[in-house]
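User: Please fill in residues for this 133-position structure.
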């Protein structure tokens, strides 16, 4: 398992995390192609050693172990991986800049389990009248 950068990094791109990473798995770095175009930083899940150094310095607490990513933000597991397995053009087609909130809502809607329709409850019957005696 690796670490994952989630929605809190969007618009922030704080670079403290990339500076402490011992395996250089957080990109894009300032000055690298794509840094200006992306809305957040991403962790390479195939390089990350899950050391937690980046979590400790993230000023917006955007980084989680993959297995602990809160349910509403699980789409960021795929988004981080896609940054490394796609070209920048393909990545932006799938994850358009400025659309993360909309994509997050769509993703959350797909994840919600369908609620069973409530079934009509039988109406209680009135007790029979007492017998005259």
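Assistant: Residues filled in for all 133 positions:
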């Amino acid at each position: 398992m690796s670490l994952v950068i989630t929605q809190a990094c969007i618009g922030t791109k704080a670079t403290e995390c990339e500076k402490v990473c011992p395996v250089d798995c957080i990109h894009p770095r300032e000055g690298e192609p794509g840094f200006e175009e992306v809305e957040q930083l991403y962790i390479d899940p195939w390089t990350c050693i899950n050391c937690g150094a980046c979590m400790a310095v993230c000023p917006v607490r955007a980084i989680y172990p993959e297995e602990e990513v809160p349910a509403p933000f699980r789409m960021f597991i795929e988004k981080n991986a896609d940054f490394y397995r796609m070209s920048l053009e393909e990545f932006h087609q799938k994850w358009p800049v400025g659309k993360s909130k909309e994509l997050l809502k769509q993703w959350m809607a797909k994840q919600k389990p369908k609620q069973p329709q409530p079934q009509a409850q039988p109406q209680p019957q009135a007790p029979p009248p007492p017998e005259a005696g």
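For context: The longest helix spans residues 100-111.
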